[in-house]
Write a structure and sequence with these properties.
The complex is a heterotrimer.
Chain A: H1 3-31, H2 39-53, H3 63-87, H4 103-114, H5 130-160, H6 170-196, E1 206-209, E2 215-218, H7 223-232, H8 253-277, H9 281-307, H10 329-342, H11 357-368, H12 379-398, E3 404-405, E4 408-409, H13 412-438, H14 440-443, H15 451-465, H16 480-509, H17 526-541, H18 545-560
Antiparallel strand pairs in A: 1-2, 3-4
Helix pairs in contact in A: 1-8, 1-10, 2-6, 3-4, 3-5, 3-16, 4-16, 5-6, 5-7, 5-12, 5-16, 6-7, 6-8, 7-8, 8-9, 8-10, 9-10, 9-11, 9-17, 10-11, 11-15, 11-18, 12-13, 12-17, 13-15, 13-16, 15-16, 15-18
Chain B: H1 2-34, H2 36-39, E1 43-46, E2 49-53, H3 90-106, H4 114-117, E3 127-128, H5 130-144, H6 148-157, E4 159-160, E5 171-173, H7 174-184
Antiparallel strand pairs in B: 1-2, 3-5, 4-5
Chain C: H1 12-24, H2 28-31, H3 35-55, H4 63-104, E1 106-110, E2 119-122, E3 131-134, E4 144-154, H5 156-159, E5 165-168, E6 175-176, E7 181-191, H6 199-206, H7 216-245, H8 252-262, H9 265-284, E8 287-289, H10 292-300, E9 303-307, E10 313-324, H11 330-341, H12 347-360, H13 367-370, E11 373-375, E12 383-387, E13 392-396, H14 398-409, H15 418-429, E14 433-439, E15 442-453, H16 457-466, E16 470-474, H17 479-489, E17 493-495, H18 500-512, E18 517-521, H19 527-532, E19 535-539, H20 544-549, E20 552-554, H21 561-585, H22 587-598, H23 617-641, H24 650-682
Parallel strand pairs in C: 9-16, 9-18, 16-17, 18-19, 19-20
Antiparallel strand pairs in C: 1-2, 1-3, 3-7, 4-5, 4-6, 4-7, 8-20, 10-15, 11-12, 12-13, 13-14, 14-15
Helix pairs in contact in C: 1-4, 3-4, 3-8, 4-6, 4-9, 4-23, 7-8, 8-22, 8-23, 9-21, 9-23, 10-21, 11-12, 21-24, 22-23, 22-24, 23-24
Chain lengths: ~575, ~190, ~675
């Protein structure tokens, strides 16, 4: 650890803090249909979209209709993307002559991009055509992010409204988050990215003759336009195999910093949007504080352990640069790893698999906790709501009242659905990993021997179920077994959580608001923040302890005692 | 239900058109207009030949050049990626130790810095650390028959600073350094 | 919190019965109601089977170790059952003492109200609608309503109140409770509940775990616990497969040990006991609840509707000040006031005598000795007084006394003096009642009669305010008086000139604002409001209609009890929350005990996690299991007594409880497991 590293962490956190309020306010206005700067351009487009698709912009939906629209829309997304992948060889914009994708991989990619996971078991260079890149992957990067934001907004409405039946209109929330939030931000970031050196063209790959006279093929394509939405929509899928470690995806420390900002931007600002919509900004800040504490803990723990260097190499390499880029260094890599896993992004600028065990475990823990530390756009906040509901339930009892959150009574139904949604992740991670550990197809996957191989498996299913997309990438995941299992895990981890979450929203929105008194559990103070963190760790995290013990934890002690595999 | 389906399908099509075609095309046109070099991959054109991209590292084997970091893909532009070997991997430990031992012969006075013995994440890392460049000065000096002092000066000129004085790490772009080397000193 | 019938937690009789019950409760069919404990029982059976297999030499594990684990798992289940049985036992003992009389009662059943002959049947066989006769000396066989007759009834068996109550048909005091005794005269009673449906029966059902309906809040908590149990079940089951990948195998006994220590057995074992104990605490305060959720709702209440009379004030206006007019001596006025009231048996009159005595040292005198004649209050004269041989004293309302003065002076033009008007106005504004005193033809002054607020009320309302509970006073008084009293007693709001329907209106209005309300009532016209209120407490002395509409009945008929009821509700919820937090926080230490032991053979390096420095892998696992079982028993007294509840703001309570039960929950097991480990090794159990 050094001073410059710590300063970069502080600078990063500070910039995020500065952006929360303006972006939060902007999104509040967007979803309350108030006037915004972009209205003159976007309102006519919005009207046209509704007209063409037959949406009545005055109509609202109850939770079930909302969920149905969301699922149907995403289902079509899966089908369309799957078809594009299968037929990209005969579709236009294919200067790299990419071939049709095999059915199992196409399913995996389709599940991966519609679920906002962007897990990649393939090498994109030469595999993905520019058509697929733009009309398949870029589109889903937008739409899966917009779906997440829509869900969060619907949930916030449920908390803000009183004795209503409807939680908004999915189509309107979808279109507004795409047009007002994601597109303008992506556009701005894209242009800065191009300026900093990220390519944006439709040209075929360049054949260069190197100084020493060898041929080096340089991939091209519409990279910048997806690089921005990849980060802003917490998608994370690399346009190129090395993802944001690739110099074309992340050429400079500035692009690195901007990507980090972009990854947290919407998720962090949504806490403020939430606060504003429930007319108490402190409620948003409380959630952000809990997130912030967990985030900073992860960053410093990871930075500390990674800075120690590998004791097995203590006579050779002082720092662990394996899998890292010189321009980012230890801190730039560690910070990216924590941010990307806290936020369900999954983009990587270094190889997590080559991190030291404990610093490599921190990203894994971030994913396992359900990516509620900022989290994926929308889903992170609603995941945090679920924990808040459980925390309020127990803490509420402790102050001697049946629990309520923001004046809404928390009853059997909310607890049932929250528990379901919170437990799906650990169930998925454990069951799929256990399956992989006991079948020959699964055991064949890991590259590394010993506990690290186990870490690869558990990371893979955590990442897939948690819709993160990053990996301990030694795992050979492009096999029928892993394509199928991770694909299923991604869909379960996405939609089996979204539906109960919306069901809670549907139940909450109907409730009366109980006015707060000094006997009401305050959900604004630091005490509640710490209680929330305690619940996140005990209810959401402790269950992984045995699995982590067999992976990174034991690897750490083995490494110290000088064992290799 | 049918209406829902119709809405869902037309919504998918319209939003695909906006985000998957209009948006990337607009960015492409503007990028090519205002930042044509960057938008095309920051290519280095030398005598009408493309000799690479200043962002993408190349493999240098000759003693006359500064060498890039070890690469898992040997600087193949289509196979970016790292080793993904974990910290307790025997393969990794052996590889790093043997690389380090190999380099020690080159410059017995100092031990090679970490970046020179470990593979990057992208396999295309265009940079090495300042220590990594300094470490190679004696070898290049002998191969080129020029003074270490002159080389040191050249390296210092090519140090890329932290952006805004804080972001990133100090580093040297191997390709531009080697190009400068070729320009200033005869081959 | 004062309790009347507090019994020792460790009554030998109850413990004996609870021990037997806890074995009977091992029946999986009934235990299924408690999913966490059910899981423990299932794995206890499994471990026992493994032990037998080991015994037969079919599998080869450390025999004594497996035996001990199996034994402690059974102990865990039994401790859980025992907790429930203890709570039940205490509740039942409470209820039984109430029920005793009823069982032995014979009822004199009449065919109809005019029947002259009765048939003797056991009181337990009475059905709703039956008419029974109760005569002097007999015990009333069932809850009911008097349809004919008047009787003096001794309710001390139920309420502990020794003064007998006069009850008669058609009045507000027409309902009778089973177990009370007729002291004089006779009554015919229409029975209002079927066998097993009386208040007492419902109460008994509430404290019997097997029949008890879980409250919605308990169900929600149960779901959370089941969810955690499932996920830990999967997590432990998959360890075996993960271990397989690592090339090792974990004995099932150890996996089971991990599972049982991780699932929330502490709260699972105590949950039902906490609920029962809460109701039991109510009974100790002589309150019967109709359902468990009513008790919880009491914890939620944010507005209390309190009747002024009897709750906030003593209900009678009392003399507070003598204000002489100019030219009149204060002592003179006091003397006249006292004299005029000596034979006045109204509470006001008595208070005047007492006040004069206390403040002016005027001894009570005997009217007959003074040769005086008492003039009682009548509706016509609207004044009372006393006639001596040569003088008269009168006290009464301003108008009445003015008329009296006019008559005495034979002058109809006499006006109320300016001075008097001012005094009267001052008294009225402050909420008091002025009583003007005159001797012969002369106005002496005014007695200030005041509604006296009960001592300590102000402090109690202050406590309630800290807990976030608003208090509203209901009174028939005019707004002026109401405001004055509510200000003096420190209430938040008042409803003046309240008619029964105004009360209902107010409740509805507050409820639409999302408030939960509690109120007490006794009259039939209170019934709609009692039914509408979230917590309606009927006075045991009240009418049948009121009792049916309410969800709690106060046997002491003490309206201030409402405040205690709220406290009991809160205490119940706090205990539940605190023990849940404690239970969940426990897991941290258990991991540190079991995980290193579990993988000891494959990865001895994980021994670094053995921060408690437990002696051997087996002792570590055994210690964790033993701690897990013992903690249920150790926390049982807390579950039964309830977490100490102080009226503080929610933020302060949370901070305090989080520190004790959250932090404590993390730290305590580290110490506990270490201590047990030392003992286990000292006794060479592994």
């Amino acid at each position: 650890m050094n001073l410059n590293g710590i300063l970069q962490i502080i600078l990063y956190f500070f910039v995020i803090l500065l952006l929360i309020k303006p972006i939060g306010l902007y999104m509040t206005r967007v979803f309350n249909k108030e006037k915004t700067f972009f209205d003159p351009i976007l309102c006519p487009i919005e009207k046209l979209v509704y007209k063409l698709s037959g949406v009545n912009s005055k109509e609202e939906q109850n939770w079930l209709e909302y969920a149905k629209s969301l699922i149907l829309f995403n289902l079509i997304g899966v089908v369309v993307l799957y078809s594009i992948l299968r037929f990209q060889n005969i579709l236009p914009f294919n200067p790299t002559k990419s071939d049709s994708i095999s059915p199992d991989l196409a399913f995996n990619i389709a599940a991966s991009f519609t679920s906002n996971t962007n897990w990649q078991s393939y090498v994109p260079e030469g595999t993905i055509s520019y058509f697929t890149e733009m009309l398949g992957l870029t589109v889903q990067n937008f739409l899966s992010a917009a779906t997440g934001i829509a869900m969060a907004i619907a949930f916030i409405r449920a908390l803000a409204r009183e004795q209503s039946n409807t939680i908004g209109n999915f189509w309107i929330d979808l279109v507004r988050s795409t047009l007002w939030v994601l597109l303008p931000l992506s556009f701005i970031f894209s242009m800065i990215f191009v300026f900093e050196g990220i390519p944006q063209n439709l040209k075929p790959y360049v054949h260069a003759r190197t100084i020493e006279g060898k041929i080096q093929i340089l991939p091209q394509g519409p990279i910048a336009s997806r690089e921005s939405i990849k980060a802003i929509g917490t998608n994370g899928g690399g346009i190129l195999n090395a993802n944001s470690a690739h110099p074309y995806e992340n050429p400079s420390p500035l692009t690195n910093f901007l990507q980090l900002i972009a990854i947290f931007l919407i998720g962090a600002a949504l806490t403020n949007t939430f606060g504003r919509m429930v007319k108490d900004e402190r409620q948003g800040w409380v959630l952000f504080t809990a997130m912030g504490i967990l985030f900073l803990f992860g960053v410093f723990a990871s930075y500390y352990f990674e800075s120690l260097g590998n004791p097995l190499l203590k006579d050779f390499a002082k720092i662990n640069m394996e899998g890292k880029e010189v321009r980012f260094g230890i801190l730039g890599s560690v910070l990216y790893a924590i941010v990307t896993t806290a936020a369900s992004c999954g983009a990587v600028n270094s190889m997590h698999s080559s991190f030291l065990p404990i610093s490599g475990m921190m990203p894994l823990i971030n994913i396992m906790l359900g990516e509620i530390i900022i989290g994926g756009v929308g889903v992170g906040l609603s995941g945090m709501f679920l924990f808040a509901i459980i925390a309020v339930f127990i803490a509420g009892l402790m102050v001697g009242r049946t629990p309520e959150y923001l004046g809404k009574k928390i009853e059997t139904k909310e607890i049932k659905m929250s528990v379901l949604a919170v437990l799906i992740l650990p169930l998925c991670v454990h069951c799929f990993s256990a399956f992989a550990c006991t079948t020959p197809w699964g055991v064949r996957g890991p590259l590394n021997m010993g506990p690290h191989g186990f870490s690869e498996i558990i990371y893979a299913f955590s990442s897939a179920s948690g819709n993160n997309g990053s990996a301990f990438a030694g795992l050979n995941a492009n096999s029928f077994f892993y394509n199928l299992t991770t694909g299923l895990a991604m869909l379960i981890g996405r939609f089996l959580i979204i539906v109960p979450t919306l069901a809670i929203a549907g139940s909450l929105v109907r409730k009366k608001l109980v006015p707060p008194s000094s006997g009401t559990l305050p959900t604004t103070g630091l005490t509640f923040v710490f209680y929330l963190i305690l619940v996140i760790i005990t209810v959401g995290g402790l269950v992984y302890f045995p699995a982590l013990s067999l992976g990174p934890i034991v690897e750490h002690f083995l490494m110290i005692s000088g064992k290799v595999f | 239900m049918f209406n829902q389906l119709k809405t869902a399908v037309s919504m998918t099509l319209i939003l695909t058109l906006i985000t998957g075609f209009i948006y990337p095309m607009l960015v492409t046109v503007l990028a090519q207009t205002f930042f044509p070099s960057q938008a095309s991959g920051s290519l280095i054109i030398k005598n009408k030949n493309i000799s690479g991209s200043k962002l993408i590292g190349q493999n240098f084997t000759s003693d006359k050049y500064f060498h890039s970091r070890p690469s898992e893909s040997n600087y193949d532009g289509t196979k970016s990626g790292g080793s993904n070997l974990g910290p307790t991997s025997k393969k990794l430990i052996d590889k790093i130790i043997s690389t380090a031992k190999g380099l020690e012969k080159e410059n017995p006075n100092i031990s090679p810095p970490a970046d020179l013995i470990t593979a990057s994440g992208s396999g295309l890392d265009p940079h090495i650390s300042i220590a990594g460049a300094e470490f190679q000065i004696p070898r290049v000096a002998i191969a080129r028959g020029i003074s270490e002092g002159a080389l040191h000066k050249l390296v210092v000129e090519h140090i890329e600073k932290r952006q805004f004085g804080i972001l990133g790490e100090l580093r040297v772009n191997v390709l531009t350094l080697n190009l400068a080397l070729d320009n200033f000193y005869s081959k | 919190m004062a309790t009347k019938k507090r019994q020792s937690i460790l009554s030998l009789e109850i413990i004996k019965q609870a021990t037997i019950d806890s074995l009977i409760k091992l029946n999986p069919v009934t235990l299924f109601r408690n999913p966490v404990m059910f899981v423990v029982e299932v794995v206890a059976i499994l471990t026992t089977i493994f032990f037998i297999l080991n015994l037969c030499g079919i599998t080869k594990e450390n025999l004594f170790f497996v035996f001990q684990i199996a034994a402690w798992l059974w102990v865990t289940v039994i401790f859980g059952n025992f907790s429930e049985a203890m709570a039940e036992g205490r509740g039942k003992a409470q209820a039984n003492s109430l029920r005793q009389t009823k069982l032995e009662t014979k009822a004199k059943l009449l065919k109809d109200i005019n029947d002259k002959e009765y048939k003797l049947i056991p009181g337990t066989e009475l059905k709703k609608g039956d008419i029974v006769l109760a005569e002097t000396g007999s015990v009333i066989p069932g809850d009911g309503e008097i349809v004919e007759g008047v009787a003096l009834i001794d309710e001390s068996a139920i309420t502990g109140e020794s003064a007998a109550v006069l009850k008669q048909s058609g009045s507000d005091k027409s309902s009778v409770i089973a177990g009370t005794k007729v002291i004089s005269d006779w009554i015919k009673i229409k029975i209002t509940s079927n066998p097993g449906e009386s208040f007492l029966d419902q109460m008994i059902a509430l404290v019997e775990g097997a029949k008890r309906q879980k409250t919605p809040n308990e169900i929600a908590l149960c779901i959370l616990l089941v969810g955690m149990t499932i996920v830990f079940l999967i997590a432990t089951a998959t360890i075996e497969m993960f271990a397989l990948y690592a090339g090792t195998h974990i004995p099932v006994t150890i996996l089971i040990a991990l599972l049982v220590t991780l699932i929330p057995t502490t709260i699972g074992g105590l949950l039902s006991a906490i609920g029962i104990a809460g109701i039991d605490r109510l009974v100790q305060h002589n309150v019967l609840a109709m359902s468990g959720s009513a008790v919880e709702a009491a914890g939620d209440v944010d507005t209390l509707l309190l009747d002024k009379t009897g709750t906030i004030t003593f209900g009678n206006r009392m003399a507070d000040e003598f204000i002489p007019l100019s030219g009149v001596n204060e002592l003179e006025l006091a003397d006249a006031a006292q004299l005029s009231s000596l034979s006045d048996e109204t509470p006001e009159g008595r208070s005047i005598v007492k006040f004069a005595k206390d403040k002016y040292q005027l001894r009570e005198r005997n009217l007959s000795q003074l040769n005086a004649e008492f003039i009682p209050f009548t509706a016509q004269t609207r004044m009372s007084g006393v006639n001596f041989e040569n003088s008269e004293i009168r006290k009464g309302s301003t108008d009445a006394i003015l008329d009296y003065i006019k008559r005495k002076n034979n002058d109809k033009s006499i006006q109320v003096p300016q001075e008097l008007t001012q005094v009267i106005e001052r008294i009225s504004t402050s909420g008091g009642t002025p009583l003007v005193v005159a001797r012969n033809d002369k106005l002496l002054g005014v007695i200030h009669l005041k509604d006296i607020v009960k001592g300590g009320m102000r402090e109690r309302f202050e406590e309630l305010r800290k807990m976030g509970i608003r208090t509203i006073m209901i009174t028939g008084d005019n707004p002026l008086t109401a405001r004055a009293i509510s200000k003096e007693a420190g209430l938040d709001d008042f409803l003046a000139e309240a008619k029964p329907q105004d009360k209902l209106e107010l409740i509805r209005k507050e409820q639409t604002k999302g408030k939960l309300l509690a109120m007490t009532g006794d009259g039939t016209n209170d019934a709609p409001a009692l039914a509408q209120a979230d917590v309606g407490v009927a006075m045991s002395s009240g009418t049948q209609a009121a009792k049916e509409a309410a969800n709690m009945i106060d046997l002491d008929s003490n309206p201030t009890k409402l405040i205690e009821i709220v406290g009991i509700g809160k205490q119940l919820l706090i205990t539940r929350g605190a023990l849940t937090t404690f239970s969940i926080a426990n897991d941290v230490a258990k991991y540190f005990a079991i995980i290193p032991a579990m993988f000891y053979i494959t990865y001895p390096e994980l021994g670094a996690l053995n921060v408690m420095k437990l002696a051997t892998p087996h002792s570590a696992i055994l210690s964790a299991v033993i701690f897990n079982a013992l903690i249920i028993l150790l926390l049982l007294p807390l579950a039964l007594k309830g977490v100490v509840f102080k009226p503080l703001g929610a933020a302060a309570i949370l901070r305090k409880n989080l520190l004790i039960y959250g932090l404590g929950g993390i730290v305590v097991p580290f110490i506990g497991i270490k201590v047990i480990d030392i003992l286990v090794n000292f006794l060479h159990l592994v």
